[in-house]
Input
Amino acid sequence: MFGLPALNKLLHAQPVPRDRPEAKGMTPPKPVTRRVECYHCLEPFDVPIKAMSLSCPACSTRVTLEDLLIKDTCWTSRLQTCGRLLVHRKGSLVASLIEARQGIEIQGHAEGKIISGGPVLIGARARLKGDVQATSIWVEPGATIEGGYFQIVGSDRLVRGPSRPPTPPPAVADGPLPPDRPHVVVPAWAPVMRPG
Output
């Protein structure tokens, strides 16, 4: 005979739809592909989960898909991947171009122009020298940044080519800013008090 807790469980159980794999006693299938973005033409496409490199279907250029981990010193002209890049706290990466389409994390030393289609995290003990272009940049207190131009853009607007100095925005008449544009509120300058 059923006890009271078991009877309540039977009465209040939610039926599982028959078309779902759980109804047949199976686990749902794991995805066999993942979505990446080509670092040459910036076109997204699907690739097998375990693929390490292949040709982009849009531009027919060979691309690296794997996530990269830098644990030692690495000197190269270009380091590009459709995955993520992590520079370990004891790692050092020096390259003219460092690009990872899904994000970059720097805990050690990195030098060069950095382009990321995802967030860039600069750790507390990290040293960075060079330009950074990404969708977002996180700098932890204690990081050392030597020069460079930081540009935050949407992932759909990442541009190619050398970094260029920012141009001032056009003058805005007095009144509220358009709601569809991001903006930063800067407080008015406080007068400087001179001794004497």
